[in-house]
Amino acid sequence: MKGIILAGGRGTRLYPSTLGVSKQMLPVYDKPMIYYPLSVLMLAGIREIQIISSPTDLENFRRLLGDGGELGLTLTYAEQAEPRGLAEAFLISADHIGDDRVALILGDNIFHGSGFAPLLQRHAQSVDGCVLFGYPVPDPERYGVGEVDEHGNLVSLEEKPERPRSNLAITGLYFYENDVIDIAKNLRPSRRGELEITDVNRIYLNRGKARLVSLGRGFVWLDAGTHDALNEASQYVQILEHRQGVRIACIEEIALRMGFIDRDACRRLGGRMAKSPYGQYVLEVAASG
């Protein structure tokens, strides 16, 4: 399975903070926002990842993450000149995807929960159509919403409904079969002039090939697209890291635990940041193995 991080958009809800920098480069407590979606793909076992962003922001991502080799990854970069919908990612990344299945994650989505890695790996290995991830929210009218029957089967999808049929928001993490490229090619732009991801998901639903995984108790999903949400996400990460003594979305630790790199490589990565608490943590992880 190949991975895509869609880190485009103008970040207008975060102005003026994003007038000079991509929102996915803003810090969520102790690390850049893009570390969080990158960590999700790594936990799913995905090592070939393409980052899509605006032409002016791509160089900053390259400077931050390079080609991914030091993390045991292969990172490539692609331009989205203008935000024309989430589904455009499959057209931009068609060569990157090739003949494989694909996971798409939005660059401002943060996930955390016990047992998340095996859950991701299980569903990544068994994609038949598309796999969506739902999360209960108090204000589902702000999101795409999935409705399930008494057996947990997905029966409907709505985009920002005035009267939601459930409280399950569709999060910014999606797994697809390879035919998603052809589906995206044949989409018609919405009234907003965009290729909508909900339209892609409805096609799979109509084929009987859309599955919704509900991330319930024990999981946290945060969309850090506003100042309040960004602040709340930072506070959540700070509290958990201080109380549990672990680092959320520490990509060096994940690379080591997943077997992408060895302890010596992890130690070298930590050594570059040794003056920061984050770097010291990476060195401790490398030492403990």
Could you give a quick summary of the protein structure above?
With 289 residues, this protein is an alpha/beta fold.
What features would you describe in this structure?
- With 289 residues, the chain is α/β, with parallel strands linked by helices.
- The chain folds into two domains: 2-130 and 172-249, Spore Coat Polysaccharide Biosynthesis Protein SpsA, Chain A; 262-289, no CATH class.
- It is 34% helix and 24% strand.
- It has helices at 35-43, 58-65, 88-92, 94-97, 116-124, 180-185, 197-206, 227-244, 251-257, 263-271, 277-288, and strands spanning 2-6, 27-28, 31-32, 48-53, 74-79, 102-106, 109-113, 130-136, 144-148, 154-159, 168-176, 210-214, 219-223.
- Strands 1, 4, 5, 6, 8, 9, 10, 11 and 12 form a nine-stranded mixed β-sheet that branches. A two-stranded antiparallel ribbon has the order 2-3.
- The chain is globular, with a radius of gyration of 18 Å.
- The two termini are 27 Å apart.
| Oligomer state of the chains in this structure | single chain
Principal-axis shape equals globular
Order of SSEs: EEEHEHEHHEEHEEEEHHEEHHHH
Annotation, overall tally of beta strands:
13
Helical stretch tally: 11
Using the coordinates above, name the CATH class of the largest domain.
Answer: Alpha Beta
The CATH superfamily title of the largest domain = Spore Coat Polysaccharide Biosynthesis Protein SpsA, Chain A
* Beta fraction: 15-25%
Name the poorly predicted regions. none
* Number of domain units: 2
Radius of gyration: 18 Å
Which percent range fits the helix content?
Answer: 25-40%
CATH fold name of the largest domain? Spore Coat Polysaccharide Biosynthesis Protein SpsA, Chain A
Structural class, by secondary structure, is alpha/beta
Terminal-residue CA separation: 27 Å
CATH architecture descriptor of the largest domain: Alpha-Beta Complex
Mean pLDDT: 93
Largest sheet: 9 strands, mixed
